[in-house]
């Protein structure tokens, strides 16, 4: 029997992932059928994520999907939309992509541009992807998403929210992420399918070895490979190193480690030995390139080494031929990051630090992107010299926009006790990074050391706001106005700060006075930022008092005043306009502006992100897009929130659940509004949900009392702008309970709203309230038309419901049945089963019935024998509801519910309620 040295195979193979490939194939078929899907492939470096993505690409192509592949890059995490650019690059039909490409290539990202630019690009990319998917099923595949820039993650969030309606397969690959990362939150929120790649089984690892050496591995060789813990890349590197050492032989088609020649080398050593073939000069060039990062910029590398460009290019070309480097999306990169790390680690730490410092100096001289220079300065981890500090001071504002964490690291290293300018820049960078608590502590120490510094005092106010300490922000501004010597520009800014925060504290007169002073001082000093604060405050007061036209005009001027960006200020130039547009029934325009507001707050770590997500949920609630509303409620709950909007989001989701009949809470279980400033504008929502819960539990009298009290208590508060949302329920309950005073009072309040802003929705509310108070069905039909124009289907259905009741009472059965059918039809489209049941119950005393629907040849037994009502009762029984609870939710008597339960048991040949739950179909 002859032993022969093993030879290296020249190809790679994907093994041990059959289950994962089948899962991806199933999702592909789902997308072909028109149902979108999102999947995350997760695992450590080298575990096979990229290989699995290649397999996914093959399966998608075989299924007829259009495919776009891309990958995020480590050094492009601060470059807007960099991760998505490769998707666009893979589009073979450039006719529809040129506008997006121009936006990506033509925008100067080194300046603090208004958020509308990023929002427009994001929406354009999403629209382009939707257009592509409309022409056929589409697969978007992205590797290394853990390195994706925030702007690209934002687009992924938008796509994932719409994916259920698109024939789109979104496949992402990433290393394991911390629980608080944006990617983890996105995947949890959208319930993405997770494919977690663990180490290969022993059998699969043996198959990898067999493929490399061309023979079945023996036990000694497998013991050597076991140290790689099933990581395909590490297995490959180790086996290839052993092959080069001729430490593997093949005997009788079995590959085995050479007896008595136990290498016992580490993986790093294995890779290092693989690189022994490199000439010393080439090794130096590649080690330097490895220290600088995963992407090899040949011109930059030549400048750092002070070598001729052609010499460096020759080394890089040879490394590409040998497989150390490869060309990916027009960039030269290390084929394996492990190889790069091994090369880099061969350099002493002091040498690496000098290289990085030298690189930063070279890039400064060539006017390279500031975040790239900052990256090298940061990772070099040495004291900045005078030149470095001067450069940092000059670019700190821009760097804090492009890469706030880098700015924080460098400014922390550069600041000195005797340089207030650097401390201010450091605090601004902390605020931009969302580290408000650190910013507040830092600025308080500085104020104690240097005394009253105007800009430090301003930053303290911004930090207080970012922490949700609105009263402290007002106190900071008013203390500055009272105790400091301020010029007109500074005084105007502090007046503006006091004004906008007094709005949240519901001190409207003080807010309007300070706001008007800020506008005047801003105009006098030529400071647009001060004008913007004043406009926002005065506009918010006008909005809360119902003067929508005035508020809209003021809000329209705010973005112009902030055309150069908001700096480190916690200010949202878009939110007021969005709220005005919602109340003016311009829902499409409002949605666009909210997109800008959300993008802006994500970019600056703004305190109003959760607020804008709640506003978007409110818009969808009014527009009847309840699934979208629930998605935005979840996003708001998951977002950073110091002002209390998460409880508002929970309450809004509870309201939708009550209307749908899927959430019948105990009254005390509804989220309680806290005392944080942000919830004041939605103070009525908690009480509204609580009132509907009272009604659902059979206590309409308690519901009416609570709603009337809510109206009286909040009529002059910040919630007044949207308080009329509860008016139709007050009017309905008052009419049903015969409470004339409540009916007339809410009708008068609705009339006052119309006098201030005669929108379709407010006019509809006034007509509905007046129609119920005066028992005039024609007014209710006019209300329905107004709500139809306003785009508020729930209120349109309520108007038809109330009209059906009054028309039936007058004996106008034909008209009543038409209104009844219209109301039930709208409720059905919304999924508002609770409202449908209430409507049927209210017209039942007048003998009004809907026509028979559906099949008439119903079976006598089995689940198919149940009527629609019996199926609803069965579902509630299966959920554990009592007869009284079912009666309250479905507006039936307990006796009727008991009759339905008896019928269900008989048709299903069951003996108990428990058996109903056991045998309930899972559909």
Protein described:
This protein has 923 residues and is mostly helical. Helices cover 64% and strands 6% of the residues. The strands form 3 sheets. Strands 3-4-5-2-6 form a 5-stranded parallel beta sheet, sandwiched between helices. Helix 24 packs antiparallel against helix 25 (508-525) and helix 40 packs antiparallel against helix 41.
Condensed summary:
By secondary structure, the protein is mainly alpha-helical. The chain is built from 45 helices and 12 strands.
| SS content category | mainly alpha
Overall morphology:
flat
Quick one: how many beta strands? 12
Radius of gyration: 33 Å
Major sheet summary line: 5 strands, parallel
Quickly count the helices: 45
Strand order of the largest sheet: 3-4-5-2-6
Distance between the termini: 65 Å
Summed over residues and divided by their number, the pLDDT gives a mean of 83
User: Into which percentage range does the β-strand content fall?
Assistant: 5-15%
Uncertain runs with pLDDT below 50, 5 residues or more? Answer: 1-11, 92-97, 106-116, 852-856
**Percentage of residues in helical conformation:** 55-70%
Topology:
Blueprint: E1 4-5, H1 18-32, E2 37-42, H2 49-62, E3 66-71, H3 82-89, H4 98-106, H5 115-134, E4 138-143, H6 150-162, E5 168-174, H7 182-190, E6 193-196, H8 202-213, E7 216-217, H9 219-225, H10 232-244, E8 248-251, E9 254-257, H11 267-274, H12 280-292, E10 295-296, H13 298-305, H14 309-321, E11 325-328, E12 331-334, H15 337-345, H16 349-365, H17 370-380, H18 386-402, H19 404-414, H20 420-432, H21 436-450, H22 454-466, H23 470-483, H24 488-504, H25 508-525, H26 528-544, H27 548-561, H28 575-583, H29 587-604, H30 609-623, H31 626-638, H32 645-660, H33 683-696, H34 700-714, H35 727-737, H36 740-756, H37 760-773, H38 777-790, H39 793-809, H40 813-830, H41 833-843, H42 868-878, H43 883-890, H44 894-908, H45 913-919
Parallel strand pairs: 2-5, 2-6, 3-4, 4-5, 7-9
Antiparallel strand pairs: 1-8, 8-9, 10-12, 11-12
Helix pairs in contact: 1-2, 4-5, 5-6, 5-29, 6-7, 8-10, 10-11, 11-15, 12-14, 12-15, 13-14, 13-16, 16-17, 17-18, 17-19, 18-19, 18-20, 19-20, 20-21, 20-22, 21-22, 22-23, 22-24, 23-24, 24-25, 24-26, 25-26, 26-27, 27-28, 28-29, 29-30, 30-31, 30-32, 31-32, 32-33, 33-34, 34-35, 35-36, 35-37, 36-37, ...
């Amino acid at each position: 029997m002859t032993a022969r040295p093993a030879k290296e195979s020249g190809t790679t193979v994907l093994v041990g992932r059959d289950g994962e490939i089948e899962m991806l194939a199933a999702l592909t078929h789902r997308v072909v059928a028109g149902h979108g899907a999102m999947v995350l492939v997760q695992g450590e470096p080298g575990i096979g994520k990229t290989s699995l993505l290649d397999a996914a690409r093959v399966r998608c192509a075989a299924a007829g999907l259009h495919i776009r592949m891309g990958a995020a890059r480590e050094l492009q995490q601060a470059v807007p939309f960099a991760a998505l650019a490769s998707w666009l690059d893979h589009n073979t039909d450039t006719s529809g992509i040129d506008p997006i490409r121009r936006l990506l290539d033509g925008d100067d990202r080194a300046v603090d541009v208004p958020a509308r630019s990023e929002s427009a690009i994001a929406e354009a990319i999403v629209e382009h992807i939707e257009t592509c998917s409309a022409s056929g099923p589409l697969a978007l595949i992205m590797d290394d998403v853990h390195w994706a820039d925030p702007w690209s993650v934002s687009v992924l969030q938008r796509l994932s929210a719409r994916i259920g309606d698109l024939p789109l397969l979104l496949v992402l690959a990433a290393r394991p992420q911390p629980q608080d990362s944006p990617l983890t939150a996105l995947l949890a929120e959208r319930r993405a399918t997770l494919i977690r790649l663990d180490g290969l089984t022993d059998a699969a690892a043996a198959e990898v070895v067999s493929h490399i050496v061309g023979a079945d591995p023996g036990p000694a060789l497998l013991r050597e490979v076991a140290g790689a813990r099933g990581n395909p890349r590490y297995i490959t590197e180790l086996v290839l190193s052993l092959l080069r050492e001729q430490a593997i032989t093949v005997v009788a088609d079995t590959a085995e480690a050479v007896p008595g020649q136990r290498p016992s080398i580490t993986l790093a050593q294995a890779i290092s030995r693989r690189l022994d073939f490199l000439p010393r000069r080439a090794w130096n060039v590649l080690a330097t390139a490895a220290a600088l990062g995963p992407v090899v910029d040949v011109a930059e590398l030549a400048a750092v080494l002070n070598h001729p460009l052609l010499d460096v290019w020759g080394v890089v070309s040879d490394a590409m031929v040998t497989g150390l480097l490869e060309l990916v999306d027009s960039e030269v990169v290390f084929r394996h990051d492990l190889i790069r790390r091994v090369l880099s680690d061969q350099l002493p730490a002091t040498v690496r630090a000098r290289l990085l410092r030298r690189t930063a100096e070279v890039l400064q001289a060539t006017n390279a992107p500031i975040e790239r220079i900052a990256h090298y300065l940061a990772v070099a981890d040495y004291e900045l010299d005078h030149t470095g500090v001067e450069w940092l001071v000059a670019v700190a504002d821009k760097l804090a926009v492009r890469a706030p964490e880098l700015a924080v690291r460098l400014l922390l290293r550069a600041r000195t006790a005797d340089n207030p300018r650097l401390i201010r820049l450091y605090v601004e960078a902390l605020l931009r990074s969302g580290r408000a608590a650190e910013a507040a502590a830092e600025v308080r120490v500085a104020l104690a050391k240097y005394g009253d510094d105007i800009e430090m005092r301003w930053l303290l106010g911004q930090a207080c706001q970012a922490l949700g300490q609105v009263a402290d922000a007002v106190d900071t501004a008013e203390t500055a106005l009272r105790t400091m010597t301020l010029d007109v520009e500074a005084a105007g800014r502090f007046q503006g700060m006091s004004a906008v925060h007094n709005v949240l504290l519901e001190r409207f007169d003080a807010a309007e006075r300070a706001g008007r002073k800020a506008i005047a001082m801003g105009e006098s000093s030529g400071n647009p930022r001060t004008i913007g604060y004043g406009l926002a405050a005065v506009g918010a007061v006008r909005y809360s008092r119902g003067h929508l036209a005035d508020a809209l005009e003021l809000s329209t001027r705010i973005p112009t005043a902030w055309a150069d960006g908001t700096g480190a200020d916690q200010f949202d130039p878009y939110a007021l306009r969005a709220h005005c547009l919602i109340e003016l029934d311009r829902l499409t325009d409002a949605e666009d502006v909210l997109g800008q507001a959300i993008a802006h707050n994500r970019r600056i770590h703004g305190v109003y992100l959760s607020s804008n997500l709640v506003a978007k949920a409110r818009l969808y609630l009014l527009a009847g897009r309840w699934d979208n509303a629930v998605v935005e409620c979840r996003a708001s709950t998951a977002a950073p929130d110091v002002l209390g909007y998460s409880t508002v989001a929970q309450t809004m989701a509870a309201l939708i659940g009550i209307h749908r009949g899927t959430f019948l809470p105990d009254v005390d279980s509804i989220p309680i509004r806290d005392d944080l400033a942000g919830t004041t504008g939605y103070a009525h929502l908690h009480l509204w949900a609580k009132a509907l819960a009272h009604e659902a539990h059979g206590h309409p009298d308690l519901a009416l009392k609570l709603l009337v009290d809510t109206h009286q208590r909040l009529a002059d508060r910040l919630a007044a702008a949207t308080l009329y949302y509860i008016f139709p329920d007050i009017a309905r309950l008052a009419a049903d309970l015969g409470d004339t005073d409540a009916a007339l009072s809410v009708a008068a309040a609705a009339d006052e709203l119309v006098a201030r802003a005669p929108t379709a929705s407010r006019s509809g509310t006034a007509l509905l309230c007046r129609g119920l108070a005066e028992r005039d069905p024609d007014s209710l039909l006019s209300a329905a038309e107004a709500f139809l124009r306003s785009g508020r289907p729930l209120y349109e259905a309520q108007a038809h419901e109330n009209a059906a009741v009054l028309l039936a009472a007058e004996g106008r059965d034909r008209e009543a049945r038409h209104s009844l059918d219209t109301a039930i039809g709208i409720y059905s489209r919304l999924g508002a089963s609770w409202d449908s049941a209430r409507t049927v119950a209210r017209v039942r005393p007048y003998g009004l019935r809907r026509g028979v629907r559906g099949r008439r040849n119903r079976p006598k037994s089995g689940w198919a024998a149940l009527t629609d009502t019996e199926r609803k009762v069965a579902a509630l029984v299966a959920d554990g509801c009592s007869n009284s609870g079912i009666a309250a939710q479905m507006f039936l008597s307990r006796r009727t519910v008991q009759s339905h339960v008896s019928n269900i048991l008989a048709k299903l040949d069951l003996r108990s309620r428990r058996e109903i739950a056991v045998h309930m179909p899972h559909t």
